[in-house]
Amino acid sequence: GVPALRPFPAALTNYGKRFATATDAHYLILALAFMAGRPVIGVLVPMVTLATYHASAYANRQFAGHQLWQRYGAPCHRWLADKQSHALQFNAVSEISLGFLTLLSMLGPGRSISQLYVTWSVLKQRYKSPDSAQQHRVAWQTIDERVRPYYSRVSFVHQLIQKAKAWFTA
């Protein structure tokens, strides 16, 4: 007879849970949200950085024995591998910058509330994701340290930031 479909929904649910916390899913959601609106080059920065690392790792696996790769590609791959922690931190900062850029774009004529919502929802997911949580926490701590001296000057901003932090960490 016909195979049972009972295990399929459970398997799909398990896959969906793993996929939802993956970096690739977050970037896919961002790409889909920004495809329909005005072009924002800043969206590409984290994606291109990640793609560079993926391409380098793939090329290193596939062409490790090739003479041209050993001469030109392998040193580049080693350099990228040495700088990976810096690249991950750069990605976290560029993702957060994209969030603030999207927030500022609400003041202009090409505003898109859906892009704003998606960007900040993805940032919230990136903050909680095992792939990027450490880098995002460091980036947010750095931002908080730099903004903290201005809290006393503008008290209502401090209250807004506290509410935003509560939403972000919930």
From TrEMBL:
Q: Classify the protein's membrane topology as the record does.
A: Multi-pass membrane protein
What organism does the record attribute this protein to? Tetraselmis chuii
Q: Where in the cell is it found?
A: Membrane
InterPro entries for the chain: PER33/POM33_regulator, TMEM33/Pom33
Lineage, uppermost ranks:
Eukaryota, Viridiplantae, Chlorophyta, core chlorophytes, Chlorodendrophyceae
Organism domain of life: Eukaryota
Keywords annotated in UniProt:
Membrane, Transmembrane, Transmembrane helix
Q: Where this protein primarily resides, as one coarse class? A: membrane
Q: Does the keyword Transmembrane helix apply?
A: yes
**Which Pfam families does the entry link to?**
TMEM33_Pom33
Biological process (GO), any one: endoplasmic reticulum tubular network organization
Q: Would the keyword Membrane be found if you checked this record's keyword annotation?
A: yes
State the family named in the UniProt similarity comment for this chain. Belongs to the PER33/POM33 family.
User: Membrane-crossing residues?
Assistant: 27-53
Q: What is this protein called?
A: Uncharacterized protein
Single GO cellular component annotation? endoplasmic reticulum
